[in-house]
Amino acid sequence: MSLRQMEYFLTVVEESSFTRAAEALHVTQPALSHQIKALEKSVGGPLLERMPRGVRLTPMGRAYLPHAELAVRSAEQAQRAARAASGAEGGELHVAAVHAVAVGVLPDVFAHWRRTHPGVQLLLHEYGTPEALEEQVERGVADLAVGPPPQYWTGSVIPVGEEEIVLAVPFDDDLAGRTSVRLEELAGRPWVRCAMEPVVQGQRFLDWACGQAGFAPRTAVWTEHTSTAVRMAASGVGIATAPAHVVRGAVGEDCVVLSVEPSWKRTLTVFTRVEPTGAAAAFVEAVQEVLPPYEPPAGWRPGKPLKAYQDC
Fold first, then answer.
1. 285: helix, strand or coil
2. In angstroms, rounded to a whole number, what is the distance separating the alpha carbons of residues 182 and 184?
């Protein structure tokens, strides 16, 4: 079993075709088939079922797939880390993030990076939820991730900042002249909910938070993205929750922003499978330079709730 055979296997799965995979790998189809058969012999059974039109994974192949992905991606990460440690110019750094962080925080970080490290290309991978982010980084999709503290993580976790979760309402709302509001004042108001809303103690965050305030939120509409929810709120559809940097940065603050009393806040972290070195370590520093100075509370540990917004 070799790393090249794993790469061939992953390409066949991605292309769902030996013919297209051979073209993508710049090898002949007989050579590709030979390598796949050798891989299947080494693991003790068929990984792919040859169909009249394409291929599909066997049960053994489905079990083998995530491990092959991790092995190939780990090898790629090892090569990038070695190049960075040697001071070699060029190369790339794969960064993963939840969507709200990608649109609200990372543009300024990436702009700073391009000024200070123009020889290293950044590739961004976006995910809808912290759970998906954590899962994909564990599988080796990226060199590092930026997002809320991961819940189940054995690698490096570095707190780099804090974000406040705020409310968005239109300019003609009764609350428009205020800067903050207590959640219980909003009982009976319609809400614009987002599919990316995190889960706290087995409930979606807004259901949990409003329940603590003594009422159930009345949902007006569900959206897929946070930025869409804020736009809906700005038009008067209902109240939306969003990280402050999304409302003020990516969306452009075309609505009134209200803080919740007591405030909803959560820590932002950079987490990696191994201790960051080279370009990865430099990126952590870039994030810390762009975000306001932040010191986590004494005794903080990954996955521990920090503020009223809990671990969302």
1. helix
2. 6
Exposure pattern of 286-307 as b/e (b: 16+ CB <10 Å)? Answer: bbbebbeeeebeeeeebeeebb
The Cα angle at residue 59 between residues 56 and 61, in degrees rounded to 5: 60
Geometric angle at alpha carbon 182, from 180 and 183, rounded to 5°: 120
Which has the closest alpha carbon to 270: 155, 127, 165?
A: 155
Sequence-ordered list of residues with C-beta below 8 angstroms from that of 93, at least 6 positions apart, any chain: 80, 120, 121, 122, 123, 143, 144, 279, 280, 283
pLDDT in tens, 245-292: 888 755 556 789 999 999 888 888 999 888 888 888 889 999 999 888
pLDDT beyond 60 at 227: yes
Phi, psi dihedral angles at 100 (to 5 degrees): -60, -40
Tokens of 123: 């590739």
DSSP character string of 66-132: HHHHHHHHHHHHHHHHHHHHTT----EEEEEEEHHHHHHTHHHHHHHHHHH-TTSEEEEEEESSHHH
The rounded distance, in Å, linking the Cα atoms of 262 and 12 is: 53
Residue where the block lists tokens 């994974």: 57
**Cα–Cα distance, 128 to 103 (Å, whole number):** 12
Confidence check: pLDDT of 234 > 70:
yes
Q: At what angle do helices 278-290 and 106-116 cross, to 10 degrees?
A: 120
Q: What's this model's pTM, rounded to 2 decimal places? A: 0.66
Report the candidate in 246, 183, 181, 250 with the shortest Cα–Cα distance to residue 210.
Answer: 183
Structure tokens of 250?
């990516």
Q: Which position has the higher pLDDT, 202 or 173?
A: 173
Under 8 Å between Cβ of 195 and 224 = yes
Bridge partner residues of 264 (DSSP): 165
Q: How many CB atoms lie within 10 A of CB 28?
A: 10
> In the 8-state DSSP scheme, what is residue 263?
P
